């Protein structure tokens, strides 16, 4: 799929859009209603960027997710529910315009080659940590579309931990594994953004493992005597 050189940018607090993941959104602000209408009449794409922490003005983080509108359901009051599918990591470049909504030029971030043996070992470690999370009773939501799901229903699907693990086992692309797991289980926007901004797959996996280990340590401490 050919990516555009410039796209609308939606800036949201604690929001991250990973490649291949699905992000449900509720569109209600007038500027974003206009953005959605324009996108639906063009290439159906826009970027979601996390609001830069500590900034009082609307300031998108430098790395965002570019998404494709998969489902859009409009309501009588002018609001809409939609599901956005992540296509690529992009670096936000210069701003083309600010009103009625922000448009910026983008540069897709390409993943460099990685050491397959090291990556396979890191993926195995991630799966072990996910299994431990499940044993501790932690939920495992997953940002994918359910098989046979109606495209008129933008509500996120629900999967059992067993179904999630089986789905992960079926994925052969380590980049997709680390992105989907990060999107699904990391509760903090800062942690998810750190993964989104990490282009190297091995470094991305190591960061994810670090975050998962920290979460499990806190959980074990809370369950201790």
Account of the 3D structure:
The protein is an alpha+beta fold and 225 residues long. It has two domains: 6-108, Archaeosine Trna-guanine Transglycosylase, Chain: A, domain 4 (Roll); 116-223, Methane Monooxygenase Hydroxylase, Chain G, domain 1, CATH 1.20.58. It contains six helices and six strands; from the N terminus they run ββαββββααααα. The chain has helices at residues 30-40, 116-135, 161-170, 174-185, 189-197, 201-223; strands at residues 6-12, 22-27, 45-50, 63-74, 80-97, 103-108. It has a five-stranded mixed barrel. A hairpin with a 5-residue loop joins β4 and β5. α2 (116-135) packs parallel to α6 (201-223) and α4 packs parallel to α6 (201-223). The longest helix is centred in the last third of the chain and has 23 residues, at 201-223. The radius of gyration is 18 Å and the shape is globular.
SSE layout and pairing:
Blueprint: E1 6-12, E2 22-27, H1 30-40, E3 45-50, E4 63-74, E5 80-97, E6 103-108, H2 116-135, H3 161-170, H4 174-185, H5 189-197, H6 201-223
Parallel strand pairs: 1-3
Antiparallel strand pairs: 1-6, 2-5, 3-4, 4-5, 5-6
């Amino acid at each position: 799929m050919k990516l555009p050189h410039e796209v609308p940018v939606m800036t949201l607090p604690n929001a991250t859009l990973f490649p291949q993941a699905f992000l449900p959104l509720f569109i209600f602000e007038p500027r974003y209603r206009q953005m959605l209408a324009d996108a639906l009449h063009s290439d159906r794409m826009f970027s979601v960027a996390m609001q830069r922490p500590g900034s009082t003005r609307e300031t998108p983080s430098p790395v965002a997710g570019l998404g494709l509108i998969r489902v859009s359901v409009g309501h009588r009051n002018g609001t809409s529910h939609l599901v956005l599918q992540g296509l690529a990591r992009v670096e936000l470049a210069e701003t083309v315009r600010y009103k009625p909504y922000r448009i910026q030029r983008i540069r897709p971030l390409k993943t460099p080659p990685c050491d397959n043996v090291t990556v396979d070992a890191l993926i195995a470690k991630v799966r072990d940590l996910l299994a431990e999370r499940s044993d501790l009773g932690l939920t495992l939501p997953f940002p994918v579309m359910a098989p046979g799901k109606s495209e008129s229903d933008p509500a996120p699907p629900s999967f059992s931990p067993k179904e999630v693990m089986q789905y992960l086992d079926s994925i052969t692309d380590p980049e997709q594994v680390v992105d989907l797991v990060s999107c699904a289980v990391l509760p903090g926007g800062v942690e998810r953004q750190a993964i989104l901004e990490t282009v190297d797959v091995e470094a991305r996996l190591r960061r994810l493992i670090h975050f998962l280990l920290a979460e499990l340590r806190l959980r074990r401490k809370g369950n201790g005597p």
